[in-house]
Write a structure and sequence with these properties.
Blueprint: E1 7-10, E2 19-22, E3 34-35, E4 44-50, E5 56-63, E6 68-71, E7 86-91, E8 101-105, E9 109-110, E10 124-127, E11 152-157, E12 173-178, H1 182-185, E13 194-196, E14 215-217, E15 223-231, E16 234-242, H2 247-258
């Protein structure tokens, strides 16, 4: 239990948008991760982005409430045409073939200053017109303005499980990573709003192709990072978008979108 700590999460419904207190707890995939059940990571949602030429790519995302998912901006390309690609969100099961909760949408809300070349402000919201059914298999994640003291985080995703062969999986996998110091992260990050986690050893378990946008979460179920990219020289030390840094941006754009309804 975490009775002594108060977290803030986004409210369930657009019509009731507010912050409330609660005591409840580059495209990539997990290499050398362990198979996990969705009930352990019920915030995790698989995204399939279908281009106008019918090509597809995949990303991960996290449930903020019934109508909003949080992910990486680079999952959706870098021009207005790509913003109209079809997005399918699969939730509620660790096995993609057994998922029966599917939502369709378009037009993600990408950070206004997202830079594809510099890979900064790599954050986006996905609005789902049809609400997700919250329960044991689909749950909201916690976000806060303050970065936690915890130095450990876990990322779960459906990405490739072998960097060399690009072997894919339909099963949810997870690995635990250690959040590194600013000094260590300066080797792979290029600006504010970023963090890094993992290992300097290239052979250690790591996210890989297909896990982009997947959430790095603490033991207290706080979302602290969104998988953004990794450097070839340090593949086991991926860079994440710092969610706390963008807390006000998230709050503003959810409220703005909800006011349109």
């Amino acid at each position: 239990m975490i009775d002594s700590i108060v977290y803030f999460a986004l409210a369930i419904l657009c019509s009731e948008f507010k912050l409330y207190a609660t005591k409840d707890n580059l495209e990539g995939r997990i290499v050398d991760g362990e198979d996990v059940k969705i009930r352990k990571y019920p915030h995790a949602v698989f995204l399939e982005v279908i281009k106008t030429d019918d090509s597809t790519h995949v990303c991960g995302s996290s449930v903020l409430n019934q109508h909003f998912l949080l992910t990486a901006a680079h999952c959706f390309g870098n021009n207005e045409r790509e913003m109209e690609d079809k997005i399918l969100a699969y939730a509620g099961h660790e096995n993609l073939k057994k998922t029966n909760i599917v939502r369709k949408t378009r037009s993600p809300i990408v950070h206004e200053r997202y830079d594809f070349e510099e890979i900064v402000n790599d954050i986006a919201l996905v609005y789902l017109p049809r609400a997700l059914p919250l329960g044991k298999n689909v749950m909201r994640i916690i976000i806060t303005k303050s970065f936690p003291l915890s130095t450990k985080g876990t990322i779960a995703g459906w990405g490739v499980i072998n960097d060399l062969t690009n072997e894919e999986t339909i099963l949810l996998k997870a690995i635990t990573q250690t959040v590194k110091s600013k000094r260590t992260c300066s080797r792979v990050t290029s600006g504010p709003g970023m963090l890094c986690a993992g290992s300097l050893r290239s052979s250690d378990p790591r996210p890989a192709e297909g896990d982009s946008g997947s959430g790095l979460i603490t033991q207290n179920y706080q979302l602290i990072g969104l998988l953004s990219y990794k450097m070839t020289a340090l593949p086991a030390l991926p860079v994440y978008t710092n969610v706390s840094y963008y807390y006000n941006w998230i709050k503003y754009h959810i409220k703005k979108r909800c006011m349109k309804n």
